[in-house]
Each structure stands twice: as C-alpha cells, then as structure tokens.
TrEMBL record:
<keyword id="KW-0732">Signal</keyword>
<keyword id="KW-0812">Transmembrane</keyword>
<dbReference type="GO" id="GO:0019885">
    <property type="term" value="P:antigen processing and presentation of endogenous peptide antigen via MHC class I"/>
</dbReference>
<dbReference type="GO" id="GO:0006955">
    <property type="term" value="P:immune response"/>
</dbReference>
<dbReference type="GO" id="GO:0031295">
    <property type="term" value="P:T cell costimulation"/>
</dbReference>
<keyword id="KW-0472">Membrane</keyword>
<protein>
    <submittedName>
        <fullName>TAP binding protein like</fullName>
    </submittedName>
</protein>
<keyword id="KW-0393">Immunoglobulin domain</keyword>
<keyword id="KW-1015">Disulfide bond</keyword>
<dbReference type="InterPro" id="IPR007110">
    <property type="entry name" value="Ig-like_dom"/>
</dbReference>
<feature type="transmembrane region" description="Helical">
    <location>
        <begin position="334"/>
        <end position="352"/>
    </location>
</feature>
<dbReference type="GO" id="GO:0007166">
    <property type="term" value="P:cell surface receptor signaling pathway"/>
</dbReference>
<dbReference type="GO" id="GO:0009897">
    <property type="term" value="C:external side of plasma membrane"/>
</dbReference>
<dbReference type="InterPro" id="IPR036179">
    <property type="entry name" value="Ig-like_dom_sf"/>
</dbReference>
<dbReference type="GO" id="GO:0071222">
    <property type="term" value="P:cellular response to lipopolysaccharide"/>
</dbReference>
<dbReference type="InterPro" id="IPR008056">
    <property type="entry name" value="Tapasin"/>
</dbReference>
<dbReference type="GO" id="GO:0042130">
    <property type="term" value="P:negative regulation of T cell proliferation"/>
</dbReference>
Amino acid sequence: MIEVILFGYFMTCVSDGAADVVLSCTLVEEGVGLGGMGGGAAFTRTPATVVFRDVPVAPEESLETLTAFVPPSVPDPDLLLFEAKVSSVEIPNAAVLLHADCNEQEVTCEISRYSPRGSQESSDPAYFMASLSVEGVEFNTALILQTLMVEKDHSTLIQNKLGLPLSQSGTLLTEVIFVVFSHIKSVSAPLRGDVLLNCGFRQHEIPLSHEVGIEWRLQHRGKGQKVLEIRTRLDDLEGNTVVHAERRASSMDAAQVVGEGNASVTLNKLKVVDEGTYICTVSLGPFHAQQIIQLHVVQPPHVSLSEEKLVLKTTSPKTLSCHCSKYYPLDAQVYSYWWVLGFLVITVLFFYQVMR
C-alpha cells in the first residue's frame, strides 16, 4: 500500500444538489524490473489530480462554502488532470470526502491503468482504477474510470505520459462506471460469536453486465483460502444463483446482492482460525474490484482471585493473587487493568480492617 498525503483539496459548486471534489492523487505505474538477484518490479509515482464531477450533496449542505475549481488557463500536456463524471454511479458516503479537509483528515488517493479481462492494453476506451480512503473514517472505495470520446482536430493535445487525447481545458475526460466499497476497515468480534463483513458495489446506469460474481477470501500468515463464492444474475433471481461455501456457517443474501448491491458476508461461530485479512472481490463481466477488511477475534479473560474471603491481621502478611485464563489473543495486555483493580480491592480491605 502506497500512502499519499493530500496536498490540495477543493470543492466546486456546479449545480443545485451537486458539487465537484478535487483530490491530489498519485498515478502508480509498474516500471522496469530492478534487476539482479532479488530484484522485482519497480513502481513509478507521478503526481496527479482527480476531479470528481457532480457528487451529490445533501440538502442541508451549504453550497456557498464550496470553493470554485478553475482548470489551468493554458492546457498543459504534461499535467495529469483526470476529470471523472460520477452522476451515473453513486459513491456511497461521499459526504466524507466533502468534509475531509475541514476535519483535517488525510485522504489517500491512488490511480493506475486498468485492463478488463480479455481487452488489449492499447484498446479504446482506456480504463483506470482509483482507490480512495480517508484517515480516521470508515471509508474505502475502489472506482473504475472509463475514458470518454474526445473529438480530435489539429489543436487537440495529447497527454505526454499516457498518450491519450485531452479536452479543450486540458483534462482527461472519464466517467465512473463501477464502484466497490466497504464501510469498515477493521472489526473485532468475540470467539464463538458472529460477525458481518461489509462490502458493496454500484455500477453504471447502463449495466456493464447482468452477471455478477462475488468471492470472499481469507489471508492469514502467508496462507490463503476461499471462504464463500456466489454467482448470480442481476436481472433474474429464479434458479440462476450458485453458492459455494468452503467455510461452514458462512452466508450471503443473494436477494440483497441483486436488489441492493450488498455483497456482505456473515460468519457465524467464529474460531481463532477465522482471524486475518478478508478480501471481497466483486466481478461484473470483464470488470472486477476489491475491498480488504481486517478481522480480529477476541475473547475476554476469565478472572479469579486466590481467596474468596481475606482477613487481614497486622502480625501476619496475606497474599491475594489474581488469575487470568481463557483469553485471546494470548499476548493481550490484561494484567494492567486487573493489577490496578486488585490493588484497589486490597486497599479497601486493609482500611476496613484497620477501622474496625
């Protein structure tokens, strides 16, 4: 994961009930291998700007406080300025982006080239994947952008790095066609309890595909395994849903997948082996995107004292021990709280005996 500090953040009122969100981002590209033993793929990082157009604004929001975004007066083919229309696809909880700057929350934004299954790298239109997260807020979103057609003439500029035509204002015109999101980054649940891992998706108003596939996988300590997979059609619920659950007591609601774009999975009767990193992958035709959630399994300690009744005498010392057992994780810092509690209990008993 490459974290990018937000350098610039502006909002533009474009119409009643909608606004533009402008984010400083980083274009991440896979470069030439490092070479030599142990060498791997290198990644180049280039500053970029992403303008999300027509983000819905709640009626109670004050549009007067939004700062106007002005594109460069002279288009620059060296600048990476993405203009992404979002009016056809909902970005859930987008209000978080509107208030991140005022709340002094860091926004992480990465963008990279994306190739749908079966497509050629140089095919038209071109696609990009944008990943957004906001510090301190349960907001994680992956978006697939598709370039829009630009009428070319002798004055049309070509973006130097990407080789794609720019609009007259010097922006790379795109629209959001697919969104996969999660409202949680990390969750804790009790041993032998239940947990809901949140994941959802939205697609263009003109469906990319009626066939949807959802896969949940667990990664932990270098090992991976499939948890649950479901395949269905968004235009028909009758007899077209296939569910394959490799983990017992795991489930997903096919009706909510179709009706609400809800890809959340429920895990019942949690065990220690269920702890780890869960990956939600949603596929629509040739497109797919993911979200990652950390699951921590916890078990509160069973605490007991060595003596049920303690009589203090000034002539002979007494020992009161505190025992903690049956807790998880095993390296949990349980002793500090119970040490303080034990000290308070002993102190009360001491003064009680003295004052008698």
